[in-house]
Amino acid sequence: MPLKTNMQLNHSQNKFSTKKFPVTLILDHISGEANIGSIFRLSDAFHVEEIIFCGIEPNLNSNRLKKTSRSTHEYVDFRYLEDSAAIVQQKKAEGYTIIALEITQNSIPLQKLQLQTSEKIVLIAGHENFGISEEILDLCDQTVHISMFGNNSSMNVAQSIGISLYEITKSLIP
């Protein structure tokens, strides 16, 4: 019998190194429990500093959230704040570059975003139906969108955060 050379690894066998990225997520009124669970899982995968929920407090007792997060909601750092604008202004004062993930008249394609390897990032994503409020968009240093090539003009918020975290963390690795 031939030796298998490409076997799937379990959690204890993986060879990934641990690295925390200077990235904070601000979720502006995101409410979908499956989305929130997925965002916890993505935040763990990309080892972000923290998730800040604004406007709508997540229901951590939701079975849907727990199932989707696969327990990452128990150890990914997060907090809830009512006022999105206040935390954006605070993070800006702390030297973070504030990036909105939204299609706007001034947004650039995500792949054209230029970051320094030492840059501290806040990535803001907005409500599943209404996006990021204009008040918050006005506070951002940059607005990016994910180029899409089909008929639809939007993407699931958790999927778009995953794509964005991949591109951002890739830029922050020296």
Structure notes:
The protein is α/β, with parallel strands linked by helices and 174 residues long. It has helices spanning 33-45, 63-69, 84-93, 134-137, 157-172, and strands spanning 23-28, 50-54, 78-81, 97-101, 108-109, 121-126, 142-145. The chain has a seven-stranded parallel beta sheet with strand order 3-2-1-6-4-7-5. α1 links the parallel β1 (23-28) and β2. α1 (33-45) runs parallel beside α2 (63-69). It is globular. The N and C termini lie far apart (43 Å).
Care to give the gist of this entry?
This protein has 174 residues and is α/β, with parallel strands linked by helices. The chain has helices at 33-45, 63-69, 84-93, 134-137, 157-172; strands at 23-28, 50-54, 78-81, 97-101, 108-109, 121-126, 142-145. It is globular and about 60 Å long.
Q: What does the average pLDDT come to?
A: 93
Strand elements, count: 7
Series of H and E elements: EHEHEHEEEHEH
Radius of gyration: 17 Å
Strand percentage, roughly?
15-25%
Q: Trace the largest sheet across and list its strands.
A: 3-2-1-6-4-7-5
Helical segment count:
5
Low-confidence stretches: none
Largest sheet properties: 7 strands, parallel
Class per helix and strand makeup: alpha/beta
Topology of this protein?
Blueprint: E1 23-28, H1 33-45, E2 50-54, H2 63-69, E3 78-81, H3 84-93, E4 97-101, E5 108-109, E6 121-126, H4 134-137, E7 142-145, H5 157-172
Parallel strand pairs: 1-2, 1-6, 2-3, 4-6, 4-7, 5-7
Helix pairs in contact: 1-2, 1-5
